[in-house]
Amino acid sequence: MVLGGGHVLKEIDSQGDCWRRASQVAHENAGVLPRDGDRVAVVGCGTSWFMAQAYAALREASGHGETDAFAASEFPEGRSYDRVLAITRSGTTTEVLQLLDRLRGVPATAVTAVPDAEVADAADELVVLDFADERSVVQTRFATTALTMLRAHLGAPVDQALADLEHALAWPIGDDLLERRPYTFLGTGWTTGLAQEAALKMREASLSWADAYPAMDYRHGPVSLTDGASLVWFLGGLVPGGLGEEVTALGATVVADPLDPVADLVRVQRLAVAAALAKGFDPDRPRNLTRSVILS
Questions:
Q1: How many domains does the chain have?
Q2: Same domain flag for 143 and 201
Q3: Which terms does the UniProt entry file under GO BP (predicted)?
């Protein structure tokens, strides 16, 4: 009998309500989020870092200002920014708190689910997404809600994402998708960060062999891993240049549907949980992981 997964399954299913509220949060917090023209550094750890990558690429590509994303432990000391934006679900991640302490004097906004956590003292401003907090160790709705809120702040409507989310939550997961070697996720531009997050979900929830690359860079070595046992997933649909046809010719299963990329990520979340349950794992409590990394 397989136990577990109850929290993460409910959290995945609840994302529509969270995304709707995220648009309002973006409007209410416009004054503490990055302004047009600001030079911004976005930081986080794990899933939050991948959301930072997606937002940074999206913000800069849409003309709102130079934007860099860093793992909090790898922030380049001495570089100048107008604002630091930290994404931390728990508000207790050691590397984020230490970085914000070192950057005192630089305006800092934290996006968190826990308003009374330590990050409240470390950051100048908070954007609180407590309605998207989670009991599962594996992040799903907090990450997508944070990114949806930041997309809304850039002026992106949520309507298409919500429509595609309905498709993602109803997507049938065949048994043939549950044990692929490897799962490879490909993105371009801002979806490269989503591809990294998709691979992380498969690894942490189901201990699957999963990796991620910029789509066009996949040809430069990683394609050698691909065969009939592989699944290759293009986040947000195929890229031009015939790569999808090349991968199909190698015998791999290709997933490349033109969904909103964040809604497409929800399909991967569901696949990761299904693969975990099929192996008898508890995706609410992956081995060796805790809700927040707190260093002594």
A1: 2
A2: no
A3: carbohydrate derivative metabolic process
Same domain, 146 and 245: no
The pLDDT score that the predictor gives to residue 3 is 53
- Percentage of residues in the chain having pLDDT higher than 70: 98
Across the range 72-85, mean pLDDT stands at 95
Residue 30, domain CATH: 3.40.50.10490
More confident residue, 237 or 110: 110
Q: What is the DSSP string of the chain?
A: -----HHHHHHHHTHHHHHHHHHHHHHHTTTTSPPTT--EEEEESTHHHHHHHHHHHHHHHTTS--EEEEEGGG--TT---SEEEEEESSS--HHHHHHHHHTTTS-EEEEES-TTSTHHHHSSEEEE-GGG--SSSS-SHHHHHHHHHHHHHTT--SHHHHHHHHHHHH----GGGSS-S-EEEEE-TTHHHHHHHHHHHHHHHH---EEEEEGGGGGTTGGGG-STT-EEEETTSPPSSSHHHHHHHTT-EEE-----HHHHHHHHHHHHHHHHHHTT--TTS-TT--SS----
User: Which residue range is the domain that position 118 belongs to?
Assistant: 6-153
Residue 294 within a domain: no
Q: What is the pLDDT of residues 212-241, one digit of tens each?
A: 999 999 999 999 999 999 999 999 998 878
pLDDT at 103 over 90: yes
pTM of the model: 0.95
Residue 58 domain flag = yes
pLDDT at residue 1 is higher than 70: no
Same domain? For 146 and 10 the reply is yes
User: CB of 205 within 8 A of CB of 276?
Assistant: yes
Choose the final residue of a domain: 136, 153, 170: 153
| Same structural domain, 148 and 85 | yes
Within-domain flag for 97: yes
